[in-house]
Amino acid sequence: MVKKVYGVGVGVGDKKLLTLKALEILKKVDKIFIPISKEGKKSIAYEIIKDYVDGKDIEELLFPMIKDKEELKKYWENALEKVLKEDGEVALITIGDPTLYSTFSYLWKLLNEKGIKVEVVNGISSIFASAAALNIPLVEGDEKLCILPQGKDLEKYVDEFDTIIVMKTKNLKEKLDKIKDKDNYIVGLVRRATFEDEKVAIGRLDELDFDEFNDYLSLAIIKRVKE
Amino acid sequence: MVKKVYGVGVGVGDKKLLTLKALEILKKVDKIFIPISKEGKKSIAYEIIKDYVDGKDIEELLFPMIKDKEELKKYWENALEKVLKEDGEVALITIGDPTLYSTFSYLWKLLNEKGIKVEVVNGISSIFASAAALNIPLVEGDEKLCILPQGKDLEKYVDEFDTIIVMKTKNLKEKLDKIKDKDNYIVGLVRRATFEDEKVAIGRLDELDFDEFNDYLSLAIIKRVKE
Fold first, then answer.
1. Distance (Å) from the alpha carbon of B131 to chain A's nearest alpha carbon
2. CA B189, CA B187: separation in Å to the nearest integer?
3. pLDDT per residue as tens digits for the range A57-94
4. Could you tell me where the DSSP H helices lie in B92-159?
5. Interchain CB distance below 8 Å, A142 and B132
6. Which domains does chain B have, with CATH numbers?
7. What is the ipTM of this complex?
């Protein structure tokens, strides 16, 4: 039976944003599990670490991007089974940080239920890498921030929070279109922060072109313009 | 005049949570500025990196923890002056990530206004390190998260968000006491995540002992109990 499972955040596109600890763990574990969303499709997380883990025992785990929870559960159970049957210490890698909307969180819960030792190794999240790419802070002083996946309840909160992050959607334009008085907001759009094909735009909401920001790794940072 | 300023996030207490990039930048810059909150007081950020930067040119910048903005502005202007008069590339280090409630953000703005080249190097934030220490994800699936500094508007949002982080206060107990129906929430308390004197507690809000969580580097993660 597996002795310990590390949930390792490998950060965003820039390989140098890996932490010293993540690198140490990836080099010492007996096996690295990498998430893929479709058979034959490349794992983004693996692309980030592959130069560091030459010769390692690597195994793919299939986590398709489907919404049906019962259907998904089969894939988690299947992944769990593969992980449990290992002998030593293993790592499962995930982009960003393992605590924020991560593929790892479902498996994490199942491992905890089984009493398996789990250690999360934090990684750089796209929310921070995106703010850095835009050259703006997310929040300062006593400002409030919220993260609304798929822009859920955006109209309700857009005037109550200083900074709003909309992520986990391929359609930022449609989500942000619901905001009224578009002139009151400065919006930063970031696609694939720190990857080679990173793209950023910033400006008043009504002046932005969303065309190149329709990727699952795109996000929007919305700030109310203050007087 | 200074050529480039790096705002480097050095993460939390564990020195190994530094990124490869942060380490590379700290080794190559001509000078490292370190924030202190009081003359003669140790810089937490410097404690994290000092083993890696032996022999480097280090200079302290005083950023006192006061609320008067006019008074604070003098310290920022003074820091700016010191940074500007350097010749080459310099780094200013900050705990956590430079985009989230960071000491760096004020200087960042002034540097941008002066047209000085700034590059932010992301670091591991205490919000992620705390969730890892508690062995729980912050958010999964389509859950909404908010960060309320000093617990601002906590009563209003506590039932609207799946996860709420209260930080930047020395008095978590007083802030969380405002929540009604305390039995409906699981709360994780973390003091100084990943530092040697890290302390964690998790449980129903009405059962928690806040005694050891009254430090400025303590935070609370509040999750509504779901049926």
1. 7
2. 6
3. 999 999 998 888 899 999 999 999 999 999 999 999 99
4. 104-113, 126-134, 154-157
5. no
6. 4-121 (3.40.1010.10), 126-224 (3.30.950.10)
7. 0.97
